Amino acid sequence: MIEAGDLKTGVTLKLDNNLYRVTKSLYNKPGRGKASMNTTLMDIRTGHTIQRVFGVEERLDNIFVEAEKVQYLYGDGMHLHFMNPESYEQYEAGQELFGDDARYLTENLELELRLYEGLAIDYKLPTTVTLTIAESDVQIAGDTSGKVMKKATTATGLELSVPLFVNVGDAVTVDTRDGSYTGRG
Q1: Would you say domain 128-184 falls under CATH 2.40.50.140?
Q2: 66-124 adopts what CATH topology?
Q3: pLDDT tens-digit profile of 100-149?
Q4: Which listed site, 55, 75, 105, 127, has its alpha carbon 20 to 30 Å from 180?
Q5: Taking the mean position of all CA atoms in its chain, how far away is CA 138?
Q6: Residue 156 near residue 130 (C-beta atoms within 8 A)
Q7: d(CA 133, CA 22)
Q8: How far is CA 109 from the centre of its chain?
Q9: Lowest-pLDDT range, 8-17, 67-76, 149-158?
Q10: Alpha carbon distances (Å) from 165 to 140, 176, 183
Q11: For residue 98, what is the enclosing H or E element?
Q12: pTM of the model
């Protein structure tokens, strides 16, 4: 059990026999009245989000989540497939669990998968990943004043801004927290 006042992003709750992950929480203390927690909860099975307000002293059923180091194997359009490199046990997660973060996944990428009763319900990506540039804008000759960037797309479909010297086929490192270019790969 956890008090609603202790809710933070990433906590997994069981409400009405469904599993929810807290994606956003905001403490609210009006001048008069009781304090509350305004939360955005994502249904782990469907990917839908709901808004919910809890009193800060309300007790909620949080669940124990097991974390496991896994490697990304492949995606088949609907599911993403992972394997524990030590036990060779395989897991699958719905594409909606990762959402736009699926663009950071490359073959054999190591990450942390969080499991509840064998079901993948959450993940933690490494801080940086190495991706290959598949498309980029054409460099304009003479445009070198200041920090000049151009748009590029990686082989996984991630769009980002890169320096002018980065070309198609180059490997770059990308920060998974904000999708920004951090250097050559």
Answers
A1: yes
A2: OB fold (Dihydrolipoamide Acetyltransferase, E2P) (2.40.50)
A3: 899 999 999 999 998 888 888 888 999 999 999 999 988 766 656 667 88
A4: 75
A5: 31
A6: no
A7: 33
A8: 14
A9: 8-17
A10: 11, 22, 11
A11: helix 95-98
A12: 0.73
